[in-house]
Structures are given as structure tokens and as C-alpha cells.
Design goal:
Number of strands: 11
CATH topology of the largest domain: Formiminotransferase-cyclodeaminase, Chain B, domain 1
Helix content: 40-55%
Largest sheet: 7 strands, mixed
Shape: globular
CATH superfamily of the largest domain: Formiminotransferase, N-terminal subdomain
CATH architecture of the largest domain: 2-Layer Sandwich
Number of domains: 3
Structural class: alpha+beta
Distance between the termini: 36 Å
Order of helices and strands: EEHEEHEHEHHEEHEEHEHHHHHHHH
Radius of gyration: 24 Å
């Protein structure tokens, strides 16, 4: 099955178009698509958005880093945006057929290759971080190129995850990671007083008491004060709430937003949320949007009727005389359907007068179920791929001196995926039960179906865990996994 990953590399060049074009050209790899690229002269930074298959997009990112190292000299670089490297930040974001854990593996592979090929040290951040303090990019980049260049060899917290404790003399270092989708959102104020933007940024960012999932800083850009933000989870902290808080904070200083900008791309859902908020459309949901309705109705070209066209290929793949996809993938699909049903019930109750008192609980459930659904969808492919990896390991082990270690490593991976499916399915099951008393009782059959699907997913996933454990030689690992499965089934 196809894998789709987004990569949004940030390079420290926003003024010389020829250099940016050369970096983009270097990343042209078969199976990778350029979705967008933005240049900002004041920040002296460009943001390039790529999407592609897992293997191909890793190579594209690595080549982009190499080209940036050839063209960008941080000793001569000046701009409003903080930077540590010529290729400053390389995040991988799961889209389809991959999990955040897969993106962590990708980030580590890319980081290792960047050091091996170009002698550029690499720090890992967000989900790929090797320590809690490195989850936040700001902690890694504090002091920027000039300060870190002096401290990297002597301060333990500055040592890179890959490479020697020295910056590349012109390209600095690179920060590579895995994260959820991020919205880069900037609001311009009708003033040139950058101190006001900095005060507003302090009020809205989470690290100084502001909104969860918001990072912010104040800059002077094109003669205007700008509140520059990263929204790291737009479903829990939507873009319209951020705009409203910035507007209210600006009023305290006698200024107002004059415009805003999106750097890179934004999910359609984020704009739908903003439209619902600002237009105050009663009982709004995304199916009211013409294009969404057409996609739902005609996505399968109506050849065999809407829903069947979407689910039929997977069912036929299950029925085919091949080992994958198998029971593990089916268990993940079952849990994903359970999460989808539960989210539908919660969404159709939220916003109704009868359930207004449960607005917060319903919103939290919808957000979490959405996240679980995406993770479980990714596990459908991941389970099949892990089985194929086990078969490949058995074949390669015949000619290897480390046969047991090679096979055990693949089996552990094949065990961890259905285990995570079982854990997520159990959480879905728990959320279904919390929704029963706070949602429309006329939809109880949907919740009953969701609960049954979640139970089936747990049983099926744990059966896949057990069959892998029977072939493992690592007794300590087997014991630990069995303890985790016991927790899941409540023993």
C-alpha cells in the first residue's frame, strides 16, 4: 500500500531566488512532489513543502540539505528569524500509510545520513527528540548559530545527536524531527513598534502562560510589527481563537491586526473551523460545503455507489490469497471505524441545546478520537509492512551470522504495531462509554456498533501480538509485552 509523508524543510535563504531554485531542483526525486514554497526577505528564510513516498522523500530532504550547505554561509547570513543551520529545520509529518513512529524512524535515518554525507551535525526534535528538553525547537536553537558555535564542544546540553561536537563552518547544524501538522501563521499589526508584537507574543504562547499548542515571537517585518506563530495542534487550539486573542491583546496597546498570512499550506478543516466561528452558521458541519459533499458522493465515480467504492478495495485485498493485509490490518481498520463512529455521534450532539452543558467533554472526545482514528488508519499499512519485514528477515538470516538478532528485531517491530492498535482500541472503547450518557440516545446503536468494533480490534490485535511472541527468543521482551497485554484485557 502507498505511503505518503509530508516534509517541510526550512532553509536560511529568503532573498536570493536563484539559490532557492537550486535547492528545490536538488530535491526533485521521483515519487516526491513540490506542493509549495515561500520566500521571506525580512526573515531571510524559505519554507518548502514536499509530499511523497517514505523512501523517496527522505532522499529528497538529504539532497536539499547538501545543496543548502553548498550555497548558504551562515557567517554572512542576517535575518529576523532565528536560525542554527543553512538547512535549519527538517520535519516529517505523517499523512497516509505511516505513523508518527514511522516518521521518527525516518528522522533518525535522515539525521544520520546528513552527518555521514556532509559532516553537518544534527539535533533531533519534537517526537524524535532523545531527551524531553529537546522536544522544543526553541531550546535547541537558543543563542543561534553564533552562540552554539562557541558552546557545542564544551556544554553537554549542546552536543548533537549525530556527529561530532562542532558546527559545520558555513552550514552550521540541522534540526530534524517528526511532528503532527503545523500551521505557520503570522499576524501583522498596524504599528511599527515591534515591542508591542513581542508583548502580544508573550501573552499568547503556551510557554509563558498563553494558549496550548501555540508558539509565538514578535518581529519587525516589512516595516510592520508581526506576531509570528506556529500552531502545533490546530484541532485543539484553532486558528480563529488565536486570531481573536491576538486582536484582544492588541487592543490593550491601542493597535489592531491589519492582515495575516499563512506560510506554507493549511488544512481545509482549519479554514472550515474559522468559517464556522466567524460566520456563526447554525448547526454547521463540513458536509454543508459543496466540494466536500461532491467528494463524498462521487469519490468512487458512483460506479458501485459511494461508500462501497471506498471500502471495497480493502475488503478484496483481505480476501486475496496473500498474507498481507491480514488480521492485524483488519484489527486496525476495525478500531479506526470504531473511532470514526464515536466521533460522528459526538459531533452530531455537540452544538445542540440539549447537550450544551457537555460542550467541553464532547470537544475533547472529538479531538482525541480524530487523533486515534488517524493513528489507527496508519497502522493498517504499518502492520502489513511489518509482516513483510519479518518474512524478509527470515530470508536474509539464512546468510547472516546474526540470524537470531535480525529476526528478533523484525518480530519486535511486528509485535509493537498490533500492541499499539490494542491500546488505542481500548482507549476508543473507553471513550465510547463516556459518550453514552452525554450524546443523543437515538444514536445508541452507533455507539453499540463502535463498542463491538473496538472489542473485536482488541481481540484481533492481541492475537497477532501473541503469535509473534511465540517466535521470539528475547524472554525479557516477551515478559514485558505480556504484562502490557494483561493491562489491556484487565487481568
Amino acid at each position: 500500500m502507498q505511503t505518503l509523508v509530508e516534509c517541510v524543510p526550512n532553509f536560511s535563504e529568503g532573498r536570493d531566488k536563484s539559490k532557492v531554485d537550486a535547492i528545490v531542483d536538488a530535491m526533485k526525486v521521483e515519487g516526491v512532489y513540490l506542493l509549495d514554497h515561500e520566500m521571506d526577505a525580512d526573515h531571510n528564510r524559505c519554507v518548502i513543502t514536499l509530499a511523497g513516498e517514505r523512501e523517496a522523500i527522505q532522499e529528497a530532504a538529504i539532497r536539499g540539505v547538501g545543496k543548502a550547505a553548498e550555497l548558504i554561509d551562515l557567517n554572512k547570513h542576517q535575518g529576523a528569524h532565528p536560525r542554527l543551520g543553512a538547512a535549519d529545520v527538517i520535519p516529517f509529518i505523517p499523512i497516509e500509510g505511516v505513523s508518527i513512529e514511522d516518521c521518527v524512524t525516518m528522522a533518525r535515518h535522515v539525521g544520520e545520513q546528513i552527518w555521514k554525507r556532509f559532516q553537518i551535525p544534527v539535533y533531533l526534535y519534537e517526537a524524535a527528540a532523545t531527551s524531553p528538553e529537546r522536544q522544543n525547537l526553541e531550546n535547541i536553537r537558543r543563542g543561534q548559530f553564533e552562540v552554539i558555535r562557541e558552546e557545542i564542544a564544551t556544554v553537554a546540553s549542546r552536543k548533537p545527536d549525530f556527529g561530532e561536537a562542532r558546527l559545520h563552518h558555513t552550514a552550521g547544524a540541522c534540526v530534524v524531527g517528526a511532528r503532527k501538522f503545523l500551521i505557520a501563521y503570522n499576524i501583522f499589526l498596524n504599528t511599527a513598534e515591534v515591542e508591542i508584537a513581542k508583548k502580544i507574543a508573550k501573552a499568547v504562547r503556551f510557554s509563558t502562560g498563553g494558549m496550548r499548542f501555540v508558539k509565538a515571537a514578535g518581529f519587525l517585518v516589512r516595516g510592520q510589527a508581526q506576531v509570528s506563530m506556529n500552531l502545533t495542534d490546530f484541532e485543539q487550539t484553532p486558528i480563529h481563537r488565536v486570531f481573536e486573542l491576538v486582536r484582544r491583546e492588541a487592543e490593550r496597546y491601542g493597535v489592531a491586526p491589519s492582515s495575516s498570512e499563512i506560510v506554507g499550506l493549511i488544512p481545509k478543516k482549519a479554514l472550515e473551523q474559522a468559517a464556522e466561528w466567524f460566520l456563526q452558521v447554525e448547526h454547521f458541519d463540513s458536509s454543508l460545503i459543496l466540494e466536500n459533499r461532491l467528494t463524498a458522493v462521487m469519490g468512487g465515480k458512483m460506479a458501485v455507489g459511494g461508500l462501497r467504492a471506498g471500502v471495497e478495495p480493502f475488503i478484496e485485498q483481505l480476501a486475496a490469497p496473500t498474507a498481507t493485509p491480514g488480521g492485524g490490518s483488519a484489527a486496525a481498520a476495525s478500531a479506526a471505524m470504531a473511532a470514526g463512529l464515536a466521533a460522528m455521534v459526538a459531533s452530531m450532539s455537540r452544538g445542540k441545546k440539549a447537550y450544551a452543558q457537555y460542550e467541553r467533554e464532547l470537544s475533547e472526545a472529538i479531538s482525541r478520537l480524530s487523533q486515534l482514528r488517524e493513528e489507527l488508519k496508519a497502522a493498517i499499512n504499518a502492520d502489513a509492512e511489518s509482516y513483510n519485514a519479518v518474512m524478509s528477515a527470515y530470508k536474509r538470516a539464512k546468510d547472516s551470522a546474526n540470524a537470531d538478532g535480525m529476526v528478533d528485531s523484525a518480530l519486535k517491530r511486528a509485535t509493537s504495531i498490533p500492541l499499539s492498535v490494542a491500546e488505542r482500541a481500548r482507549e476508543v472503547s473507553s471513550l465510547v462509554e463516556t459518550l453514552r450518557p452525554i450524546t443523543n440516545p437515538n444514536m445508541k446503536s452507533d455507539l453499540t456498533t463502535a463498542a463491538a468494533l473496538a472489542r473485536a480490534a482488541i481481540e484481533g490485535a492481541l492475537a497477532n501480538v501473541e503469535i509473534n511472541l511465540e517466535s521470539l527468543n528475547d524472554a525479557e521482551f516477551v515478559s514485558q509485552i505480556r504484562k502490557q497485554t494483561a493491562v489491556i484485557v484487565g487481568r
